[in-house]
Amino acid sequence: MSASDEIWILGINMTKFGKHPDLDVVDLGAEAIMGALADAGMTMRDVGILAAGNLMGGGGIGQQLQKQVGQTGIPVFNVSNACATGATALRTAIMAVKAGEVDVGLAVGVEKLAGAGLLGGGGKSKSDENVWEPKGRYGAVAPTDGRIGTDTMPGVFAQVGMEYLNDHTYGGEPFELFAKISQKNHSHSTLNPLAAYTKEMSLEQIMGDIMIAYPNTRPMCSANCDGAAAAVVVNGEKLKTLSLEQQRRAVKVSASVLTTDPWQEACQILPDVNTLTRNAAKQAYEQAGVGPDDLDLVELHDCFATAELVHYDNLMLCEEGGAVDFFESGAPWRDGRLPVNVSGGLQSKGHPISATGIANIWEVCQHVRGEGGPRQIEGAKVGLAHVIGLGSACGIHVLEKSAA
Amino acid sequence: MTSTDAPAQVPLVDYLVLGDDPHLLAYECASCGARYFDRRNACAACFDTEFTRVRIPSEGVVRTFTIVAYAAPGIPVPFVSAVVDCDGTSVRGNLINVEADPDHVRLGMKVRLATYSLGTDDNGTEAIGFGFEPVES
Ligand SMILES: [Zn+2]
User: Fold this and answer.
1) What local confidence, expressed as pLDDT, does residue A298 receive?
2) What is the predicted pLDDT for the residue at B1?
3) A354 domain residue, yes or no
4) Is the dihedral of CA A85, A86, A92, A95 positive or negative?
5) Which helix (DSSP H) or strand (DSSP E) does residue A183 occupy?
C-alpha cells in the first residue's frame, strides 16, 4: 500500500457529553471542530471537504458550522444514517481523501438530545373523527406501534438480546445477565470526565430502577444527552510533510467500513443488527490485516445492555454463540482480556446520536496515543470502534498506533 | 340491502383476514419464497417481481419478546411484544391473554393467533386486532 492510500487521523476531539443548556447545536459542533483542528495543527484553510451529521436539527448543519468556524467554499456533505451518522460522516471524508480528491478531510457529528424522551415509536393517535379508516402501507386503521409489537428502541433492542439467548438456549436469568453488562459500563465511566454519567451503579440499583422494556431498565438504556465530536483525516503523503510530533500522534485508520443489512428471513420483522455487523467486522479485519485477538480495546454500540451482548459475538470477540461466556469470564471489563467500552459506552458516557460514531473513535485514539489518562489501557496499540444505526447501517473503524 | 345484527368489522391491518377462521396473509416471492407483509416492487432477497398471496400458519413459538412499560399514548402498558416463529415465517405481534410479566412469558413458549376488539367507531364498525395467546399444553 502506498502512502497516498493510507488514511490517518491527524486530529480528533469530543465535547463533554451531558446537558449543555447554554449551547446550541452549532456551538457544540463548532467546539468539536475547533478542538479537532487544534489537535491536528491545522485551520479550515487546510481542509478540502467537510462531512457533517446531525439528525434532530433543521438540516444543513455543515453549512451552519462553516459560518461558525470558517467559510472557504469547500464541498459539504450533510449525512444522515441514524445512529451511524457520525461514522458515516467520517467514512465520507475518508472516501474523499482516499479517492485523491483532497488531502485533508474533516468530519463532525453533533446532537442536542438532553431531555428527549423515548425515541422511536410514537405513532399518531386516531384523528378526532372517530372512524376506522385504513391508512398506509399495511392499510392500518390504528397506529401499529404497541398494537402489533413495539417500535420503541428499548423494546426493539430488548428483543434483539432476548433473541440471542433464545438462539443459544441460555438457561440463566436474562435480567441479571444484562444488568451486569450495564454495571460494567457504569463502572467504567467513573474514570471518564467527559461522560454524561460518572457515578458507579450497583447491580441492585440497576435492577431496581424504572423498567423501560424488560429486560432493560433505565440505566441499561443509552443516555440521551448533548454532545459533538469531530475528526481531521489526511493521507499518508500529506502526513509525511508534517512535523514529527504530528506524525507521532497521528492514528492510522487501518480499516474503514460501512455496511447495510442483506436480506435475512426475519429482518423485516425485527431489525437484524447481527448480519451487517458481522459482515462489517469481517471486512474490517481483512482490510486492517488484524484479527480480534490483536485488539487491545473495543468501543461497541451498546445502545442498550441487550445490544452489547450480541455484538461480542458479531464482532467475533468470542467464539460463535459464546457471548455469555465471554462476558462472564470478565474479559470485557477494563482489567479483562479484551476491554469493551472503557469510556462507559452509550449507557453511561451517553449517546448524542450523530456524535457517537466519532466519539467512539476518539476514545480508541486516546488509548493508542497513550493519552487516556486515568483510564488508559496500558500499551494499547490497536482498537476497534463500532456503531449501528437502526434500519440499518453499521460503521466499523480499526485504529492503530503510529510507528513514528 | 339487508340489515344484520352483527356490526361490520374491519381488520387492524390488511394482512389480517377476519371471519370464522382468522389468519394472516403474506406476499410470497414466486422465485425464492421470501415473505413480506407489505407490497414490494421486487423481492429484497432475489429481486424477482412475481408474488403470490399465502396463508401464514396460525401456531408458532416465541423466538423473542420484551415487556414494554413505556409506550405511545393510548397504548395500555405493560404489554408483551414478540416475534413468533410460525413454522418458518417470523411474525411480529403482541402476546395477549397472558400476564405481562417474566414469570408468565418465556422464550420458546407455544402460541397461536387470536383476535380481539379494538372498539367500535361512529358508524358502528368494529376494528379487530390480532395477537398471539399461549397454547395450553
Ligand atoms: Zn425472492
Assistant:
1) 98
2) 43
3) yes
4) negative
5) helix A174-188
**Residue A51, SS3?**
strand
Count of structural domains, chain A? 1
pTM, two decimals, is 0.95
CA–CA dist B53, B59 (Å, integer):
19
Between chains, do A147 and B118 touch, taking CB under 8 Å as contact? Answer: yes
Compute, in angstroms, the gap from residue A222 CA to the centroid of ligand 1: 36
Judged by DSSP in three states, B92 sits in: strand
Cell 489501557, located at residue: A377
- Show the cell assigned to A42: 491545522
Percent of chain B past pLDDT 90, that is, above it, reads 92
Distance CA A348, CA A220 (A): 9
List CB contacts (< 8 A) between A156 and chain B: 66
Radius of gyration of chain A (CA): 21
pLDDT in tens, A250-281: 999 999 999 999 999 988 889 999 999 999 99
Query: What is the domain extent for residue A336?
Result: 3-115+223-401
One of 2.60.40, 2.40.50, 1.10.3470, 3.30.70 is the CATH number of B58-137, namely 2.40.50
User: B83 CA distance to ligand 1 centroid (A)?
Assistant: 22
CB of A138 within 8 Å of a chain B CB? The answer is yes
Taking CA–CA distances from B128, the nearest residue in chain A reads: A141
- Tell me what the mean pLDDT of segment B50-60 comes to: 98
Report DSSP letters for A245-307, one per residue.
HHHHH-EEEEEEEEEEPPP-TTTTTS--TTHHHHHHHHHHHHHHT--GGG-SEEE---SBHHH
- Residues A129-174: pLDDT tens digits? 689 999 999 999 999 999 999 999 999 999 999 999 999 999 999 9
The verdict on A11 touching B (C-beta cutoff 8 Å) is no
Mutation test of the interface with chain B: which of A126, A165, A166, A212, choosing the one with the most B Cβ atoms within 10 A? A166
pLDDT band at A377 (very low <50, low <70, confident <90, very high): very high
